[in-house]
Amino acid sequence: MAAGFGHRRRELHALWSFREDVYLEADSRAGTLVLHSRWDDIKVPHPGRTVAEALQRMVLGPIRLDNVISEAADLANLHRLLERLEPLVVRSLGADQEQPLVSLVPLTPRSRLRVPPVPGDVPVRLSRFAIISSDGMDYRLESPLALHRVVLHTPEAMGLVGHLRRPTRLDAIGDAPPYFATLVAHLVATGMVVLAERVEPFRPAEFAEDTDDVLVAWSPVNLLFHSRSTLGRHDADFGATHPVGDRRGVEPVVADRRDSGLVTLYRPTWEGLVAADPPLGAAVEAANGAPPAPGPLTARELGELLYRTARVRSVSGPPGSPEETSDRPYPSVGSRYELELYVVAGDCGDMPRGVYHYDPLDHGLRRLPGAPADVGAALENARLAAEMDDPPPVLVIITARFRRLSWKYNGLSYAMMLKNVGMLTQTLCLVAAGLGLGAHPLESVDVELWADALDADWRVESSVGALVLGRKPPRELASGWQPVNDAHWPDLAHRLTPAGETA
Predict the structure, then answer these.
(1) 26, exposed or middle or buried, with CB in 10 Å at 0-12, 13-18, 19+?
(2) Residues 278-320 pLDDT 10s
(3) In what residue span(s) does the Cyanobactin oxidase ThcOx second domain sit (predicted)?
(4) What is the CATH number of domain 246-473+485-496?
């Protein structure tokens, strides 16, 4: 007995089944079977009694084909049919006929499996893009580069995969069972295990995925997020599927109001806006994203900026229902408006220093409890991130109430939220430019820092974006920049926005 791996003389059997979402329907009059799947309906005309029986049993779970069909001709016909049905067929390997060791599950209509021979003297390892997780029952190996999911059904399977955590040769593993090479060959076929591309004496083995110019630009997490938040390379539920039901965990259309009093903000008038606002083109050209210039902001400027970018203009749907939503000045994919704004005021007119939550329904700021040192630390953190000489007068933090999206959408909710952050950020920058202010988006946010400052659970509401506000920066073409396409337009636009002549 090899520790943890059972009897060394066991061999692996090939087991065959269909994906769990496949079912068969017989048309006795036409003499055909119809396989229904998530992708298509496939007709199998006149399959024959033994082939039809094998297909029916594959719907119920993994089988050995030679236990169902004894005639060589029928077995050959079945194999040819399974090649045609390959995207629906789960290939399993088992040391006995009842318990699969691993299963290779196709994920798309393009999934194909070709098992190569793996030389014993070539180093192999788990792909750096392979991610191990648990579904509560089994371990799963998944990769954004793979069109199969590998299900590890037993602790023994997980232990065998452990041999592949670093480059190793199959002929150098002394305590693995003899069928280990067969298992590794199937994992190579799925892309979960990779073979060394170059092996030289006294040098580490080289693997293609480590030097590929395309792959080196991706981290495993980012590539997995990209592949799972789009269609084409996975079989997960996707879109407006309401994964947690109609009510469970649904966030209200407007965040619950804090107990602190409301600081009412200035509301601009339409007439004033039309009379004084520069053209959109001027705001686009003037919004260069440079760090703002020194100088305080006024509460009036802050109020007008928030009113024109983030207020609730109207609401729709039964109050308190999951489908209640709102209309606001910036676009929102899904129209769920899951984003919240928090203002860290440092030097903003007569507004006391502090952290405030913007109430888009009542258009005001509600002050949050917090030590003065927290405000200074936040502004200093923003100053460093924006590479400014002095702390910004105002820092705006964008958070997301994730369940506004995740209760309804599967797969794409986080990607939708990121798009919405971009649209809100750009709206803030454009309106700020039109008001003659400087707005500079920050490259990153500190999730833990802001969870503490906002007294929030980062798993429920977390910071996803930030920008600093201040005076309009001077318009300068930095040294080394060469004009290409109407590079003077921002200069003209600068003069059309407020304070353009004196900035």
Answers:
(1) middle
(2) 999 999 999 988 899 989 999 999 999 999 999 999 999 888 7
(3) 124-235
(4) 3.40.109.10
